[in-house]
Amino acid sequence: MKREILITSDGSTTIHLPDWDEQYHSKHGAIQESYHVFLQSGFDKIIEKNKDISILEIGFGTGLNAFITFLEAEKNTVKINYVGVEAYPISSEEVLKLNYVKELEATENQQIFNNMHAYSWEEKQTISKDFLLTKRKQFFQEITDENAFDLIYFDAFGAQNQPELWTEDIFLRMYKAIKENGILVTYSAKGSVRRAMQTVGFTVERIPGPPGKREMLRATKISN
């Protein structure tokens, strides 16, 4: 499938799939969206109570969410075990065209971003003394983790192009993978997605979305 580099409204890059009219991140701002959906709405909530957390990212993609999480973890002295699942990794040529390090004014961590992409898959890698990264080349339907994660970043492509990634089966896998009182955050606000989450046991709330999107969803696995 054809892929192009696109500059989003906040000046940060994303990858555009013209055949699907789909982007890896919001056209209204890739960095803004990542901070709002995943960091402010998920990460910040979890670290209020826990400074040693495990994160599962559904759609490692460009590595933006992982890199921002690394930066925020460093600021907040948080230990992270980060697992990124991706069936179709981006190419090294595409990585070189991404401008996140520059836009985040984090040039001292350029090698960290490079390493996140360069390190081998299926092996736990030490990004820093407090940040461990495991990239798994895997279809989301193959996830079988149980009670393993405090936080899930659900960043799959939209249901209009890949409805099979937004089903009860997928969210049951997420529910099993997450610990009690863990949080799942996603940019989606579709009613069918909310109902699928609720059916498998999540408590779901609609909260304000990132720029260009009125709402998003945050789901919690409430202990009985």
In short:
The protein has 224 residues and is α/β, with parallel strands linked by helices. It is built from seven helices and eleven strands.
Number of distinct helices: 7
What string gives the helices and strands in order?
Answer: EEEHEHEHHHEEEHEHEE
Overall structural domain count: 1
What is the approximate shape?
Answer: globular
SSE class = alpha/beta
Compute the CA-based radius of gyration.
Answer: 16 Å
- Amount of helix: 25-40%
Give the strand order of the largest sheet, numbering strands 1, 2, ... along the chain. 6-7-5-4-8-9-11-10
CATH superfamily: Vaccinia Virus protein VP39
Output the CATH topology: Rossmann fold
* Name of the CATH first level: Alpha Beta
Q: What's the CATH architecture?
A: 3-Layer(aba) Sandwich
Largest sheet: 8 strands, mixed
Number of strands: 11
Tell me what you see in this structure:
- The chain is of the alpha/beta class.
- It has one domain: Rossmann fold.
- 30% of the residues lie in helices and 28% in strands.
- It contains 7 helices and 11 strands.
- The strands form 2 sheets. It has an 8-stranded mixed β-sheet with strand order 6-7-5-4-8-9-11-10. A 3-stranded antiparallel β-sheet has the order 1-2-3, with no helix packed on it.
- The model has no long low-confidence stretch (mean pLDDT 96).
Write the layout of secondary structure elements.
Elements lengths: L3 E4 L5 E5 L4 E2 L6 H17 L5 E7 L5 H13 L2 E7 L6 H5 L3 H4 L6 H9 L5 E5 L2 E6 L12 E6 L13 H10 E9 L4 H10 L2 E6 L6 E6 L4
Parallel strand pairs: 4-5, 4-8, 5-7, 8-9
Antiparallel strand pairs: 1-2, 2-3, 6-7, 9-11, 10-11
Helix pairs in contact: 1-2, 6-7
